Amino acid sequence: MSIGIFDSGVGGLTVYKTISEYFPKLDMYYLGDTARVPYGNKSPETVTAYSLECAGFLVKNFNIDTIVVACNTASSYAIDAIRKQFGVNVIGVVEPGAKSAVALTQNDRIGVIGTRATVRSESYVKALKALKPDVQVYQTACPLFVPIVEEMLIETDVAKQVVQMYLSELAGSGIDTLILGCTHYPLLKDRILEKFPHFNIVDSSHAVLECIKELNIPTEESGIRQIYLTDESPAFETLKNVLAGGAISKKVAL
């Protein structure tokens, strides 16, 4: 089995890391669309077009069995189009994350943080209410989280202050479970729990891993690991070294 993973940038490497650690012999190919990051401020039509190009690159160039859409914005807007166009398994991050949150919550109050586009799409609201109609969902866009992660400001007072600013209102709504609705955000998990230790945190990378386990497909491959990006990015390279060890990245054109 081989898996292709794509994201608008570096955040999806959190998903890549989780899957690769559990399945060390799985062939994996990652594409970061760094030339067009972020997707969170693009229109649904543009996000869908970009996502189809990314998925197409993975399917056409590698023997892909499963595509993981490791971008919440792309999962919110483009997942159906990808499933329709390519004859492979397609796993997004929204549905698995919603499933995990519903299983975790004790009071049916769930918070969602993400890009403006993900929040605007209400994809998590729809997914959560499809699973549990009475659940109460509270959303907040956190546009500063991505640059904080990509500029490696995770350990700074700035990160702590921004976490407090964005999440205080959510905490006041009485949520007990928080969905990290952007694949960059798991890198801020420790900062979030410092301020709000009572939150049950839903990390989409672990939710996606559970979906892959359920496929029950062979994973005894040669352990190929290849990472591609659409433009040179110092931030990508820095975080890649943190999340993907010494993997070498190659620049490609879609």
UniProtKB/TrEMBL annotation:
Amino-acid positions noted as binding substrate in the UniProt annotation, renumbered to this chain: 7-8, 39-40, 72-73, 183-184
TM region positions: none
Keyword Isomerase tagged: yes
Gene3D superfamilies: 3.40.50.1860
UniProt KW Cell wall biogenesis/degradation keyword: yes
Biological process, per Gene Ontology: cell wall organization; peptidoglycan biosynthetic process; regulation of cell shape
Biological or metabolic pathway of the protein: Cell wall biogenesis; peptidoglycan biosynthesis
Entry EC number(s): 5.1.1.3
Class in the EC hierarchy, top level: isomerase
Name of the featured protein: Glutamate racemase
Organism: Seleniivibrio woodruffii
Source lineage: Bacteria, Pseudomonadati, Deferribacterota, Deferribacteres, Deferribacterales
UniProt gene name: murI
